[in-house]
Specification:
This protein is an alpha+beta fold. It contains eight helices and six strands. Helix 3 packs antiparallel against helix 4 and helix 3 packs antiparallel against helix 6. It is elongated and about 135 Å long.
C-alpha cells in the first residue's frame, strides 16, 4: 500500500546542496525537531512542553478521565453504608385502637446496609469499559496536543527566521531604490532622461516601502504566537532570534508504512477510542432492556436507651435480593439502543474519514517536499544568475562602460531573487516539519504525556 496513486517517491532532487531521501519503514525519532540541529529551537520546545496551558489542560482532562474510571470500578464492590439516628417520639395508642395514654420516649437506631449489584447482563461492565475508552480518548488527545505544539514551534521559528531575512532584503532594496531615485532625479533635471523615468522609480520605491510594514507585522505576530505557545505573556518573554544559518535541513526522512500510520497518529487513535466508547454504550443500552439484580443486607441495633443499645435484644437484620425490570417504558429503551447503534455508525464513519485524511496529509507532505526542492533549485539558480549579473555590471561600471543606474538595477534584481530564495527555503523547512507531524512525530518514544497515564 502506498500514499500516492502511483509509487511513493524515494527522495527529492538536489537543491541548495541538499537532497532529501525518504526512508520507507524507518522509525521516527521522538524528539524529531533535534534533527534541525538548533539548540535555540530545542530550548523553546522544552519550554513549551513544560508551560503551555493547552497541554496542561489536556493533561488535566486525562487525569479527570482516569479518576472517573477508578470511581467506575467501585460498582464491582459491595456498597456499604452506616447510619446512627437518635429520635424523640410521642406514641399515640389511639392509632392502634387502644385507650391507653400517650407516652414519650427516645429511640436510638444504629444500622449498616450492604448492597451488591449482580451484573448479570453486563451493563455495568460495559459502562466501565466505556470509561476506560474515555481514558484512551483523553490520552491520545493529549499526545496530539503535544505533537501539534512541537510542530507549531518549529514552524513559528522558521517563519521568524524567514521574516527577518525578508525584512533585511527588503530594506536593502529600498536603499537601492532611494539611491536610484536620487540619480534619476539628477539626470531628469539635466535633461538626460525623461521625467517619466523618475516617476516610475518613485512608484517602485513606494510600492516596495509598502511591503515593509506588513512584513514587520507578521514578524511581530510570529513572536507573539511563540510567546503564547511557550505559555508566557507577550510582554514578559523575549523570543530567541534564529537565523537560517542556525538551522540544518534533515536529509534523511523516515516515512512510516501506511499500516503503521494508523497506530501512530494520535488523531486516528482518538477516533478509534471514540469508536470503542460508542461500542460500549451499545452494550449499556442493551443491558437496560433486561432486569437488574442486587443483593441487599441490613443489620442494626435500636433501643430506647443508649445503655441497652448494644444488647442482644436490640439487634435486627434483614437479608434478601431485589429484582427490577422494565415493564412499560413505551419505545424509550428500544430507541435508546437504536440511538447508541447510530452513534457507533457515526463514530465508525468518523474513524474512516480520519484515516483517509491522515493518508492524504502524508501524501501532500511528500509531494510538497519534491516541489519545494524544485522551487528552491529554480530560485537558487535565479539568485546565482542575478548575483553573477551584478558582479559583471559592477566590473563594467568600474571599467566605465556602464553607468551607476545600471548597477542599482542589477542590485535590485539580485535582492528580489534573494527574497524568492528565502521564501522557498522557509517553505522547505516547514514542509519537512509537516511531514514529521503527519507521520505522528514519534510521540510514543517520549515521556511527555505517558508519565501522567496509569
Amino acid at each position: 500500500m502506498t500514499y500516492n496513486y502511483q509509487e511513493d517517491p524515494t527522495g527529492t532532487i538536489k537543491a541548495d546542496g541538499v537532497s532529501q531521501h525518504f526512508d520507507r519503514g524507518a522509525e521516527i525519532a521522538g524528539d524529531w525537531w533535534r534533527l534541525f540541529n538548533c539548540p535555540k529551537l530545542d530550548g523553546v520546545v522544552r519550554e513549551t512542553v513544560a508551560n503551555n496551558p493547552t497541554l496542561q489542560a489536556a493533561q488535566a482532562s486525562l487525569r479527570q478521565s482516569q479518576d472517573n474510571l477508578r470511581a467506575g470500578y467501585g460498582i464491582f464492590f459491595p456498597q456499604i453504608s452506616a447510619g446512627f439516628q437518635p429520635t424523640r417520639q410521642q406514641f399515640s395508642a389511639a392509632r392502634f385502637g387502644q385507650n391507653s395514654s400517650n407516652s414519650i420516649f427516645s429511640l436510638y437506631t444504629l444500622s449498616t446496609t450492604a448492597t451488591y449489584v449482580l451484573d448479570v447482563f453486563g451493563g455495568e461492565r460495559r459502562t466501565v469499559e466505556s470509561l476506560g475508552a474515555q481514558v484512551d480518548v483523553q490520552y491520545y488527545d493529549a499526545e496530539g496536543t503535544y505533537l501539534s505544539l512541537s510542530g507549531n514551534v518549529v514552524n513559528t521559528i522558521v517563519a521568524e527566521a524567514a521574516y527577518e531575512a525578508e525584512i533585511d532584503a527588503t530594506e536593502q532594496i529600498i536603499g537601492f531604490l532611494k539611491e536610484q531615485t536620487r540619480i534619476t532625479g539628477a539626470q531628469a533635471e539635466a535633461g538626460v532622461v525623461p521625467y517619466s523615468n523618475l516617476l516610475s522609480i518613485q512608484s517602485e520605491l513606494a510600492t516596495t516601502q509598502a511591503t515593509l510594514p506588513p512584513l514587520r507585522q507578521e514578524l511581530a505576530h510570529t513572536r507573539h504566537l511563540l510567546a503564547t505557545l511557550v505559555g508566557e505573556p507577550t510582554g514578559d518573554w523575549a523570543p530567541p532570534r534564529v537565523a537560517f544559518s542556525e538551522l540544518t535541513l534533515p536529509d534523511e526522512l523516515p516515512v512510516s508504512l501506511p499500516s503503521n500510520l494508523v497506530r501512530q497518529r494520535p488523531d486516528i487513535l482518538v477516533a478509534e477510542a471514540q469508536l470503542h466508547v460508542a461500542s460500549a454504550q451499545i452494550g449499556v443500552a442493551t443491558a437496560a432492556l433486561f432486569p437488574s439484580f442486587s443483593l441487599n443486607a441490613n443489620y442494626g441495633l435500636n433501643s430506647t436507651s443508649l445503655s441497652t443499645l448494644f444488647g442482644s435484644s436490640a439487634a435486627f437484620w434483614t437479608l434478601g435480593a431485589s429484582l427490577a425490570t422494565p415493564v412499560i417504558q413505551g419505545p424509550t429503551l428500544w430507541y435508546q439502543r437504536k440511538a447508541a447503534i447510530d452513534a457507533y455508525d457515526q463514530a465508525l464513519a468518523n474513524y474512516r474519514q480520519t484515516v483517509l485524511a491522515a493518508f492524504a496529509q502524508v501524501a501532500d507532505a511528500l509531494d510538497a517536499l519534491q516541489h519545494d526542492a524544485e522551487t528552491l533549485k529554480a530560485q537558487s539558480q535565479a539568485l546565482s544568475t542575478a548575483g553573477e549579473a551584478l558582479r559583471l555590471i559592477e566590473a563594467n561600471y568600474q571599467a566605465g562602460t556602464v553607468n551607476y543606474l545600471q548597477v542599482l538595477i542589477a542590485d535590485y534584481q539580485f535582492q528580489q531573487a534573494q527574497i524568492g530564495y528565502i521564501q522557498a527555503m522557509g517553505q522547505r523547512f516547514q514542509d519537512t516539519a509537516a511531514l514529521f507531524v503527519a507521520l505522528g512525530g514519534g510521540w510514543w518514544k517520549t515521556n511527555a504525556i505517558a508519565s501522567t497515564r496509569s
